[in-house]
Amino acid sequence: MRTVSTRPEISTLAELRASGHRMRTLREEIRENLLAALAAGVDPWPGLHGFGTTVIPQLERALIAGHDVVLLGERGQGKTRLLRTLSGLLDEWSPVIAGSELNEHPYAPITAESITRAATDGDRLPVAWRHRSERYVEKLSTPDTSVADLIGDVDPMRVAEGRRLGDPETIHYGLVPRANRGIVALNELPDLAERIQVALLNVMEERDIQVRGYVLRLPLDVLVVASANPEDYTNRGRIITPLKDRFGAEIRTHYPLELSDEIAVIRQEAHLTAEVPDVLLEILARFTRALRSSSAVNQSSGVSARFAIAGAETIAAAARHRATVRGGTGGRGEDGPAGADEAVARLVDIEAAVDVLGGKIEFESGEEGREDEILEHLLRTATAQAVREHFAGLDLTPLVDAFDGHRTITTGERVTAEEFLAELPELEDPGLYDEIAARAGANGASSPGHRAGAIELALEGLFLARELSKESGDGQTVYG
User: Fold this and answer.
1) Superfamily of domain 13-252 in the CATH hierarchy
2) Smaller CB count within 10 Å for the chain: N or C?
C-alpha cells in the first residue's frame, strides 16, 4: 500500500510560480512519469501478475503515445484492476484553482468563472491541491446512464435563481468534465446505450463538450479508458464504430499463462480466515486452469479468477469452521481444550469448496446432469498433477504396506489434525512422514495441521494411483 505524502503548503498563484512548478498536460504527465519509472527500474504496475510480456508492454506503448485505451477480455481477467493502477502514473499532488468546478490548473483557467477570478485576483488567486487518487473516476456503464450523467445538463435550480438560460453558469457538469485533468474509466462500455456513446465522440476527438446547444468550447484534458467483455461486445451490446475508432489502442487481456502467476493472483486477492498451505492453492489453480481448457465448460463466458479466489476463501472458511467447532478456540491460541484443532486447511476442505462453487461455472448445453461428475474428474486430475509434482521419486511403498487389509484412516471436515495423525500406522522408516511433509512444503517443526495436510495429500495420491481404496460419505473419507 502506497503512503501519502504531506500536501504542499503552496496556497496562491504567486507561490506556485515561485516554486518553479511546470504545467504539463495529462498525457505529458503520464508519459514522463511512466518513462521515469521504467528508467529507474520501478514497477509501475504493482499487484498485476501474468501480463508482464503481453498486456503491459502494449499498454505502456499506448500511454507513451498518448492514446485512449479500451481493454477487451473475459470476466475476471483483471481489467478493472489494471485500469485502477493507472492513477499511480499521475503526480501525487496536482494544483487546481481553489473552488474550481472543473479542477482547472491555476496557469490555464478554461471556464468563464475561473477566467474572471484569475483576472481579478491575479497573483493572489487561491490554489488547492488534489491527490492523484481523486483524479481517477470510474463509472459502470449501465443502460440507464444518461448524457446528463456523463456530460452535463441545465440545472433548473440555477435558472430559478434568476440566471439567464443561456448563461454557462446554469450548467451542471457531468462526470467527464468534472474529471478534467484526470482519468475517466468506463467499465463494461458496450452496455452504454448507443445514443449515450455518441456524446463521448467530441470528448475523445475534439476534447470539448456540448450541452443542450450551449456554445461551449471547454478544452478538457482527460484520458478515457474503458473495459469490455468480448461476448457482451458482440451479443448484448456494442461499441459504436465512430467511438471505437477514437480509441487509439485496443488491448486484449487474458487469464494467467503460467501456474505461478495463477497462484500469485489467488494468494494476493483472497481474504483468508485461516491458513491455506501453498500446495492447496496450487491444486485450486490447476483445477481452475483445467476448467478453462475443458470442452464441457462454456469458454466464451470464461472461468473467472474470482472462481479460484472464492474457492481459496471457502477452503479457509472450512478450516476455521472445523477449528472452532472441534476446538472451541477457533484456532486462536494454544490454550484450548484437548483436541483443539488449529485453523489450517487440508485437502478435504477443497471438496467442500467445490460443492458451493459449481454454480459459478457455465457448462455447455449438452452436459446437463453431468456437472458434478465433470467437476470431480477435473479436481482429481488437478490433485494428481500436484501429487506428481511434489512426490515424484518418493517411495511410498512402506505406507501402502502399512495398510494390511484391516487398517483404515479416517479424515473429514470434522476430523482434527491431531485425530488424523494419531491414526497413522507406525512405519519401519518413521522418517517417511517427515519427507512427505517436507515435499508438500511443511517440515518437521511444522504444526500438526500442515503435517496432516501433507500426509492426507499423499494418501489421496495413492488412491488416485489405485494403491489404496477410498470411501466418502457423511463428511468423512476413509482410506484403506
Assistant:
1) P-loop containing nucleotide triphosphate hydrolases (3.40.50.300)
2) N
